[in-house]
Amino acid sequence: MKPDRARERLEQRRAELTALADSAAEGRRPVELDQSRVGRLSRMDALQGQAMALETERRRANELRRIDAALRRVADGEYGYCLTCGETIGDKRLELDPATPTCVDCAGG
Ligand SMILES: [Zn+2]
């Protein structure tokens, strides 16, 4: 994949993730405000929902780190090479996941 196209796709995905994080933060606020008024069961629901939201947040942060690392590789002219073995990563694989740091062999299938 051409670095310019990779950068475009990575930045697009980055913007999506950032927008999602913002709306998720909005969504969490009412749950916290309502906690004094809800019953025990719904409080547990709220806590569970919060744990799930945190997990989603954690994954999102991970993906952002991957994307930032890939963008750095684009900037350094190292994009598209496997971080483990140094071989070029297949275009198909990069199309599916432009932030992938390894070739299909090193990813373990
Ligand atoms: Zn490799």
Q: What portion of residues is helical? A: 55-70%
Q: Helix and strand succession?
A: HHH
- For the CA atoms, what is the radius of gyration? 19 Å
Mean pLDDT equals 89
Total strand segments:
0
* Major sheet details: none
Tell me the fraction of residues in β-strands, as a range.
Answer: under 5%
Query: How many separate helices?
Result: 3
Poorly predicted runs are: none
Oligomerization category of the chains in this entry: single chain
Distance between the termini: 21 Å
- Which compounds are bound in this model? zinc ion
Structural class: mainly alpha
What does this molecule look like?
- The chain is mainly α and 109 residues long.
- It has a domain at 3-78.
- It contains three helices and no strands.
- α1 (3-34) runs antiparallel to α2 (40-76).
- The two termini are 21 Å apart.
- The relative contact order is 0.15.
- The mean pLDDT is 89.
- The structure holds zinc ion.
- Zinc ion is lined by residues 82, 84-85, 87, 102-103, 105-106.
